Amino acid sequence: MNLKHFSLFCFIVLYFFMAPFLELFSQDQYQPGKMIAKFRTGIVNIPFGETSVTPDEQTINDENLLSILNGIGTTILDKLIPWSAQGDSTITSPITGEQAIIHNWTQVFLINFDEQQDVNAAVTQMNQLESVIYAEPNPIANLDATPNDPRFNEQWYLLNNVNNKFDIDAVSGWDYSKGDNIIIGIIDTGSDVLHEDLTNHIWTGGGSETGTPSGNHGTYVAGIAAAVTNNNKGVAGIGWNSWLMPRDFGSGYLSDVVADILDASVNNGAHVLNCSWHYMTDYTSLRNAIEDAFNVGSNFVASMGNKLPSDPPYVAYPAAYNNWVIAVGALLKVNNGDTLYARPDMNYGSFIDVTAPGDSLRTTQWKTTDPNNHSRYAWFGMTSAAAPVVSGITALVRAEFPNKSNAEVMDIIRNSAVLFNGWENDFNHYGYGMVNAFFAVAPPDAPQNLEISIVGANDNPRLDWDANSEPDLKEYVVYRKINQGNWVEKARTMNTYYIDTSIEDAEIYASAFADMISYAVTAIDYTDLESGYSNTVRCFIPGGPPPSKRYAGDTGTETDIPKEFVLLGNYPNPFNPQTTIKFGLPVESKVHITVYNIRGELVATIINHKISAGYHQVVFDATNLSSGIYLYRIQAGEFTQVRRMLLIK
Asked: Are 381 and 358 in contact (CB under 8 A)?
């Protein structure tokens, strides 16, 4: 046997030896003797005011269900959410003050049965009954990080002194927002509420669990999100003035996690919920709880999970719930922060939204082995560390834009992320890019170097300016005024030039009795903030007919011909259910615009005919499509280009 064959033989033997273990670590671990089930109304009779019931002929109105419960040795059924109200309920959100619909949790129970019974087999039996809406195990949440040492003095991800291109611009962002009065719920193992750098930020208005933490993880997470800042102690939290609402789900059983999510959001109004953990299965109870939290106005931030290259593929929940959750991947630093790249052992998936630093983040620490020491600090990493970075920035955004909905806040976080060179071709690792606190809360810079020239047979004024560098730029606004009049919006464009076809016979230099036409340009980002004016440029119209006649046709449309083919970004993006796609043709062309899902399957043909030269736009309606990432492709002659868009319903 040669070396090549021997290596192959060893690989096969190793694979079959390790396969059972790989399978074990690629699925959630379940709590023995527990499962969650939702029953149809009237199946379980529970006395008024009680929160639990023992199964017998008086309490269970289904013989088959009672037989299964007795067969697996059921001792008691506990209401999963004791305070829930009957039916799908319309409540007043403690966050927005508006009406919101949440699921009916009155028929959802945690079933306690013989721990020697096979959980999967019991769940399968239950799901075969007509009286059961769903049954599922009670899994343990997988925490997405481990702390590490040695310690350093800098929080490099907040202020990178090696290469400031690769930090989240927190220092600049704090000039605009410090997260005042925003509550961040830390759905985790509890936090050290007596820690010197956390205690003054613990929310005392209800919802915080202030007992001894059940583990170390939640204290690390809380410090990154919102440690007390500017207090001459320890570390700075991204949320600066935000409140922390620590929750303790113990071992991470789904029943405890769901209860914590609902109590923090529906009952106590947490604006942001941080989840630095995941399950590897889509559980109905988890999905419903997160949907309810979103419906009352909470923003949900979740880590993508830490998958080793040798692990079988899995989808991390709740990160994969794109409609309601900001999914966060982690970035590794190289040469002390000179550059960053996506961790190869995590992040991967089409549901990723953004990335954040997740390597050696300085934060608060609490240890079960040293419970009375409330001044410890440590280094912490992986996606568990990346998620609270985004939660802190989300708090800054919510404080700066209190009238924005949670869906609009999600759009701001995504669109303000920075996509560095080389990342644009690897969406499944980088998403929209690395989060940036400054771009998320600050208005855009005023456009620079505005210039004017006279073009075309009709001597129209043409404006040109430098492109802004902000990733969340939505459009430019061209303003015009005549003589000493007021500035009036003339047009909006995504280009860095504009030709005013409503002005003819323009001159750069004034002649006698000339009218002065002035122009300036501003920029608008996805927060709908508008920059200041650019520098002003002017042209002149020689004396003649009154301005009202010479400036007719002032519609603000772009009638110039592009110099090359171009497929512009769609707007809005994300969208629901319609978005506008713009493109430019330098010559008349046969245009074919198609839409594909993330699997490369054709889902729509938007255009397939000849179109004249110029700028054009078409509305794409995705009413019949499900939420997700889609690719739209233009082919015009030999020109092809593809862009991404995100449908969120």
From this structure: yes
> How does residue 344 score in pLDDT terms, banded at 50, 70 and 90?
low
Query: Up-side HSE of residue 557: CA atoms within 13 Å toward CB?
Result: 9
In the chain, where the domains are located: 30-139, 142-441, 451-550, 566-647
100: helix, coil or strand?
Answer: strand
> Is the entire prediction scored with pTM above 0.85?
no
The residue length of the chain stands at: 649
Residues 350 and 644: their CA atoms lie apart, in Å, by 12
CA pair distance 96, 74, nearest whole angstrom:
41
Query: Could you please report the per-residue DSSP string of 497-551?
Result: EEE-TT--S-BSS--TTPEEEEEEEEEEETT--B------EEEEE-S-S-HHHHT
Catalytic positions are: 188, 217, 384
Rounded Cα distance between 634 and 542, Å, is 44
Q: Measure the CA–CA gap between 235 and 360, rounded to whole angstroms.
A: 13
Torsion of CA 90, 85, 32, 220, to 10 degrees: 60
Cα–Cα distances in Å, from 366 out to 126, 242, 256, 572? Answer: 41, 20, 22, 44
CATH match of 142-441 with 1.20.120.80: no
pLDDT digits (tens, 9 = 90+) for 443-459: 999 999 999 999 988 89
Instruction: Please report, for residues 185, 194, 219, 610, the alpha-carbon distance to residue 202 in angstroms, rounded to integers and kept in the order given.
Output: 10, 9, 12, 63
* Homologous superfamily of domain range 451-550: Immunoglobulins (2.60.40.10)
